[in-house]
Each structure stands twice: as C-alpha cells, then as structure tokens.
Specification:
The complex is a heterodimer.
Chain A: E1 2-7, E2 10-17, H1 20-35, E3 46-53, H2 57-75, E4 77-87, E5 90-99, E6 113-114, E7 120-124, E8 127-135
Antiparallel strand pairs in A: 1-2, 2-8, 3-5, 4-5, 6-8, 7-8
Helix pairs in contact in A: 1-2
Chain B: E1 11-14, E2 17-20, E3 31-35, H1 38-44, H2 49-56, E4 65-73, E5 80-86, E6 93-94, E7 106-115, H3 116-120, H4 123-133, H5 148-157, H6 159-164, H7 170-174, H8 192-198, E8 211-220, H9 223-229, E9 235-242, H10 245-258, H11 262-265, E10 278-279, H12 283-318, E11 329-334, E12 336-345, E13 348-357, E14 360-361, E15 380-383, E16 391-396, H13 399-403, E17 407-408, H14 418-425, H15 430-436, E18 440-443, H16 446-450, H17 460-469, E19 473-486
Helix pairs in contact in B: 4-12, 5-12, 8-10, 10-12
The chains are: A alpha+beta, B alpha+beta.
Chain lengths: 136, 487
C-alpha cells in the first residue's frame, strides 16, 4: 500500500507492507503513480529485469527506484507490475509494462531524481514502512 | 514528516541581512547570513531552510559565512537560494547538494525588434506555434539526437560545439555565462547512464518549473543599462528557463552514490547526509567537478538549441528571418552551479569554490568575466518570476563581491508545496485565470499549470527589492508575461 505526501516543492511516497518484497513492489507502484496520473492503464506487455546491490536497506530502496526512473527516462516505458525479491544487500526483480503512449497514458510530473531526504526503510509493528521523497 | 518552521535565532545585521550566529549549532565554522527584509522574514521562518544554512556552515574550508538569498526555501542538503564558498587550499570541499540535481538550471533572455502591438492580436497563435515546435513535458524527447561521440563534444565544449555546427552565433556564445563552456569538463567522469539519458534530451524544455515565455518589457528602471541590453518599454522578449535534463540529474545522482562513504574517509562530520562532499583537491572532488562541468556544458547547449527552435518558430510565424526580427541573446545565466572563482576575502585574493544553488552570479561593472558590451554596466542577471507576475532583468553591483561572492537571487522561491498548489487549484482553470490577465498559457498537463500557479510562489518583486536595496544587483527592467509554454 502506498500514498503520496506533501513536501515543499516535491512529493513524498509512503509505503506500508507486510514484508520487504511487498514494500519494494509498492514503492515502485508509488513512483509510477507520480509519473502518470492513470497507472491502472499500464498494460503488462513487456518485461524488464533488475538486479541491484547496496549496503544499506534504505540505499537499496533508493537505488531500486532510481533504476526504475532510469528505465522510464531512457526506454520510455511505464511499468505497472512488479515482482521483487529482497535479500541481504540485493534486489532481484522483474517488472512488466509497456511503451509510453501519450494517447492513453496521462503523463504527469517529471521526477528528476530519487532523493535521500528522510529516506527510511524500517520495521513498523508487524510489517514495514518506507518513505522516500522524489525531486520534481 | 510534518512541515516545521524555523524557531532558531535570526539577528538583524541591517534592514536586508540577518545573522544565524555561529554558536547556534556546535560545529558551525562560520555564521549564517540570510538576505531578506522584514516582510520576507516571516516566510523565511516557514520551513527549515535557515537550519540548512546553519548546516552548510559545517563544511570544511567554508569562507566568511554560509549565505542565502531572499528567495530561500527548503532543498536537499543546501537550501534553494543557498550560497557558499570553500577554499581548496584549506581542505575546502565541493558538495553536489550545493549545486542541485538540475546542474546548470538557468535562464536566458532574447530580445526582439517586435513591439507588443505587433504581437497582441496574434498572441494565442504565436504561443500555440511555439507549443507545437518546442519539445516539452515528461517522457518527451526532442529532434536533436546526438550519438555518444557528438555528445562527448557537447559535454566538453558546450555552446562552442554548437557554434562549429552552425547552431550558435558568435554573439550567442559571447553573451552566455562562461561563453557556454566551463573549462575542466571531463566527459570521462560522466556515466554511461547519463549519456543514455542525454542522448535525445538536448533541446528539450522539460517540465516542472521550466518554461518558455513571451514577455513584454513593462517598465525600464535603468535606461542606460536597458539601452546597452537592447531593451525598451513595449519591446517583446522571450525568456527560456531550463537545465541539464536527465543527463544532469543522473550526474548528480551518480555523484551522491559515489560519495556515500567518502566524507567519513576524509574525517568530515556532517549534520546532514545530503551535504555529502569531498575535498576539492581529492580524486572524488575532481571527479565530481569534471562531471558537473560537463553537465553544465550540456545545459548551455540545451538552452542554445531551445533558442534555435524559438528563432525558427518566430521566423516561420512572422515570415521573416530571426535576424531581421532582431532576436539576439541578451544573456544566459546559470543558477545551479559550482565554480572556481577569485574573490577577496579578508583582504586576500583567494581562489574559492563558489556553490550557487538557486542563486545567480552577479558580477559588477568592470569585472573581466563580464562580456565587453556589458562591462560598463555590469553583468546582466535574468530573474524569472512566476507565470502571472513579473520577471526581472538586473545588473550585478559591486557590493555583491563583498557580501555574497558575486551572487544574487535566482527567482521567486516556492511558497506552496506542489500538492498544496494543486489542491488549491482544484476546480479552477488556471489557464483561464491567466487568460483573464491577458496571458496565454499552454502546458502538456493540467497539473503542470496548477502546480506552478502564481499563488505557489513568493512575489518575485519583493525578492528583487531586497537584492536591489542590499546592493547585490540593481534593477534594470521589469518584464510582464504574455504567453507561456510549459511541460
């Protein structure tokens, strides 16, 4: 589950999930929900794989989202379905989506970068909480 | 993550400058100074940006004071409007947060021979023709594609490369800060990823607060300076605000990743992780500077190509060459950048690394880095306002060299978060409200207009008043928007 929250000139994504895999998947959904107003219109036609390594869990989240943003910006794809495996210092994931179609996809805000401000990935009761702010 | 105000000290130095004392936070090497007046001070206290000014004061090698301009607002590590200078000879550092993700975000102003009467009746069509031609918006590439070899040349040479391709005139290059090329750019320090993002984005506007505006010179306040710049009341101008696009964002992101554990290795303690830095004279510092300069050069090439497309649009629309329309470049300034510059500090001339994050260079009359045409009057400073209000042209003044490392403000500064601006705009047609003021606006997305609605920004005229009265830069002319295109 994700929601966006207000942050001065930019926007924050807050995610809650039962486990880390779900957390990273929902964070990805949250990112694409910022990029496009109607993420439900993204069709799972093509698949991309990702493999990311970082020492800290919060940096791992940062780098995962940064890779997705990079794929969006260079391959001009929107991604809607995610399967993530988080273990130790590694993320292995697949994502499904389709090329951007200006007729169907309501492209919204340009996300310049995933920032480190208030970046957190932490246990929250029985589950997990993550917060990340993206630079618009 | 609730929004909190600043409740720390702000001691009046004079009517336009306020101090955060060095003892506010243990670890501050110098005091903080914020340029503002009583009116803007309340807004200054609205967010944590003064705390950020205090945090920057921790940086090794920082000289004189950690500064902020009156358009100060919260940013990553450094506040927007933040300025500092570090001395490499004292272990001074360079910090990507002191430049920003959008390296060399900046603005250029073109003048024209056209008068407002010639344009008013056809404004909507003119704006729409610009909207069709200028690539803008999220996920939009442009018509200029550069293979890696040519992209390397852009990174190394900036506007100079475009000049060799017949895409920039001598006048264009001469009237761009640094002549559109920072020396010491190192394309080898720019990652493959950044190259990929930059491949088709040179000559595109972007989104967010980037824009292209058709404006009229509404009031000239310094006739002599305005004449030198070719600006007259009633004259039509075009202002272009954009930066280094995805290439620059990637360079910053790469640098922040590379610097993750670096400050500790140099024994640098930081109150905020986002002030990640390295000594200028270190491998990491030089790597970032090399990459940052390359990205800055890309941004100048970007604004040059946006201007080329603007000239083409005008030429097609008016059926005359852009030269016959008098569409010459007044000046182009960077407002997110770090540069090695000579400044006199405590009576000594030092070469320092000046960080300007949402702040503009404002060198005074006589300074050798000011182009010959402007040396008698001072360096032109272009200050974009918001859509519904004014933009300004200023010139650098001598006090900037004493007080702010030759720096002034960059724009209006956000008041409202984007979400608040959008919520505030709900149910409103911002384009119609602007139309009622005679402003034609075209944006790729509704949110693009709503989040940039005039209410979201401080009044730029108040910001400019402060820098004018503080002697950092002097008012030359106020410009009024007539038409704006946004991503």
């Amino acid at each position: 589950m994700y929601e966006t929250f207000e942050h001065t000139a930019d926007i924050g994504i807050r995610v809650r999930a039962a486990d880390l895999n779900g957390l990273f998947e929902d964070a990805a959904r949250g990112l694409f929900a910022v990029l496009v107003a109607n993420p439900e219109a993204i069709r799972p036609v093509q698949e991309l794989s990702f493999r990311i390594e970082a020492q800290r869990l919060d940096d791992l989240l940062h780098d995962w989202l940064a890779e997705l943003l990079f794929a969006f910006d260079t391959r001009r794809v929107l991604l809607g379905e995610f399967r993530v495996g988080v273990s130790g210092d590694r993320v292995e994931a697949t994502a499904r989506g389709e090329p951007i179609d200006p007729q169907r996809h309501q492209l919204d805000m340009e996300v310049k970068a995933i920032t480190y401000h208030g970046l957190k990935v932490e246990r929250d009761g029985d589950g997990w909480l993550a917060e990340v702010i993206v630079d618009l | 993550m609730t929004k909190q105000g600043y409740h720390g000290p702000l001691e009046k130095i004079d009517d336009f400058c306020w101090r955060i004392p060095k003892d506010f936070k243990p670890g501050m090497r110098v005091e903080g100074r914020i340029f503002a007046d009583e009116r803007l001070l309340a807004l200054v206290r609205n967010d944590q940006s003064p705390e950020q000014v205090a945090n920057v004061a921790f940086l090794p090698g920082i000289q004189m004071a950690s500064l902020a301009m009156p358009d100060i607002h919260w940013g990553y590590g450094f506040c927007i409007g933040g300025v500092c200078a570090t001395d490499p000879a004292e272990g001074g550092v360079v910090s990507p947060g002191g430049v920003g993700y959008d390296i060399n975000c900046g603005v250029r102003l073109l003048r024209t021979h056209l008068r407002v009467e010639e344009v008013e009746g056809r404004l909507t069509q003119l704006v729409e023709s610009l909207f069709r031609r200028i690539p803008a918006g999220v996920g939009i590439g442009g018509p200029y594609l550069f293979d890696p070899k040519r992209l390397r040349r852009i990174l190394a040479e900036g506007s100079g490369y475009l000049q060799t391709q017949g895409l920039a005139t001598d006048g264009d290059v001469e009237h761009t800060e640094e002549q559109g090329c920072l020396p010491g750019a190192d394309p080898d320090q720019v990652s493959q990823k950044a190259f990929q993002r930059g491949a088709d984005q040179c000559g595109t506007l972007g989104s967010g607060n980037h824009f292209l505006e058709v404006q009229v010179v509404e009031e000239v306040l310094d006739e002599q300076a305005a004449n030198v710049m070719g600006l007259q009341e009633g004259g039509i101008c075009v202002m272009i605000h954009s930066g280094s696009r995805g290439l620059g964002y990637q360079v910053c992101d790469d640098a922040l990743r590379d610097l993750r554990n670096v400050p500790a290795q140099y024994g640098i303690q930081l109150p905020d992780r986002q002030l990640a830095c390295a000594p200028v004279e270190s491998r990491e510092g030089q790597a970032y500077l090399g990459a940052m300069r390359a990205a800055a050069n890309y941004a100048w090439a970007n604004r040059q190509l946006l201007m080329v497309q603007t000239r083409e649009a005008f030429a097609e629309f008016f059926g005359r060459s852009w030269e016959s329309l008098g569409m010459s470049l007044v000046y182009d300034v960077a407002h997110n950048i770090a540069k090695l510059e000579e400044h006199v500090i405590d009576g000594q001339t030092k070469t320092v690394c000046v960080h300007r994050k949402g702040a503009t260079r404002a060198f005074p009359a006589g300074h050798p880095d000011v182009p010959a045409r402007y040396r008698p009057i001072g360096q032109p400073v272009i200050i974009p306002g918001d859509m519904g209000r004014a933009s300004w042209v200023l010139v650098g003044r001598p006090a900037s060299m004493e007080r702010s490392f030759g720096t002034t403000c960059h724009g209006a500064g956000r008041l409202m978060s984007r979400t608040a601006a959008i919520a505030d705009a709900k149910g409103r047609r911002i384009d119609r409200e602007l139309a009622q003021q005679g402003i034609v606006a075209r944006a790729r997305s509704w949110k693009g207009l709503a989040e940039e609605q005039p209410g979201a920004y401080k009044d730029v005229s108040l910001v400019v008043e402060v820098v004018h009265r503080a002697g950092l830069a002097g008012k030359v002319a106020r410009l009024r928007p007539l038409g704006v295109i946004k991503g």
